Structure prediction request, 205 residues.
Amino acid sequence: MSNDYLPTKSNLIKLQNSLKITKQGSELLERKKLILTKQLEKYVEKEKKLKMQISEMMDIGKKLIRNANIDIGIDNLTNIANGVKIDNYIDIKNITVMGTEIPSAVHKSEIVKRNYGFYNTTNTVDEAIFKFNEIQEKLIELAILENTITRLEKNIEKVRKRSNALKNIIIPENEKNISNIMDELLEREREEFSRLKIVKKKINY
Prediction:
């Protein structure tokens, strides 16, 4: 048997203090889980709206591509598409929410420069290129959101496991040990009281 569980008053006080701290830790973990869950719900809702927005933008982009294809032909359009170069700068920084690192990106894209002449092209070509440049911006935003959601889900699961371990294993075990020690100490007191009564009775005789 561990010395911590020997039926002594000092061990009783130690276990009672430990139980108090453990219960406080359990409450903090529950609070943390609640905050992270609310954050997760916010990001999931944002992700849902962003996906709908990207889907609508893709529909417009596809129509523009079809129109551009009709206007200048698939070969010319392919050559223009292959020659489009966009220099992007993405700086990923992390912010911390309740111990969870959440990525935050600063994305700077340079203005799309024409690599083709006006001859044999139409406004539809320009519109298609700029539309897909906008879609690229949204896809980067979506990737960051999905990464954030994954991190939050993993951290919530970790907090849930730790909280359950405290509530279902550690706290009940501490309470049981405290109860056992208190019962043992009480029994000792009764025995001591009975012994003293016997001694006192013998002295009186």
The beta strands are 88-97, 100-109. The chain has a mean pLDDT of 82. The chain has three helices and two strands.
